[in-house]
Design a protein that fits this description.
This protein is of the alpha/beta class and 152 residues long. Helices cover 34% and strands 11% of the residues. The strands form 2 sheets. The protein has a two-stranded parallel sheet.
Length: 152
């Protein structure tokens, strides 16, 4: 299944539409993933931050899609003309768990787990992720990658 191109193009399309409002959009909060930060780099013994990018070579197709979509977002915003610029924040949660909105199962929820494998997932509660989005949208210190160059 092709996941990289739709993720990158979808992100690009939304952000370009925001830019066309010529100042009508002040800030965008992009939901990314820990896969964009640490995908393929789990045993390097480092503390990951906004300065890190996943390993393109070692990432899964999903991880590559998140990595490339987020990099595309930062590059696009950085290169916008001043009259089209808006602030960008990204939220990079791990595996999101919690109550579902519609009260019924959906495709993402229809999974059987015949055994419990020995895996480690950085799990987040969906309500905490929602709270992070609200903070990212309202905090004056949220936007940007805090002195990080896009190519880093």
């Amino acid at each position: 299944m092709e996941v990289i191109r739709p993720a990158v193009e979808g992100t690009k399309n939304v952000l370009e539409a925001c830019a066309k409002t010529k100042g009508g959009v002040k800030r965008v909060v992009l939901t990314s993933s820990t896969a964009a930060i640490c995908g393929g780099r789990y045993d390097e013994g480092i503390v990951f931050s906004e300065k890190e990018w996943a390993s393109e070579e070692a990432s899964s197709p999903y991880g590559k899609s998140k990595l490339q979509a987020e990099k595309t977002a930062w590059e696009l915003v950085e290169n916008l003309p001043d009259d089209e610029k808006f602030e960008l924040c990204t939220i990079n949660p791990g595996f999101i768990l919690g109550p579902i909105l519609q009260g019924t199962l959906c495709t993402s929820m229809e999974r059987e787990v015949p055994m419990v494998p020995n895996l480690c997932y950085p799990a987040c509660d969906v309500r905490d992720v929602a709270g992070a989005h609200i903070t990212a949208m309202t905090s004056p210190t949220a936007p940007g990658r805090k002195g990080v160059q896009i190519g880093d």
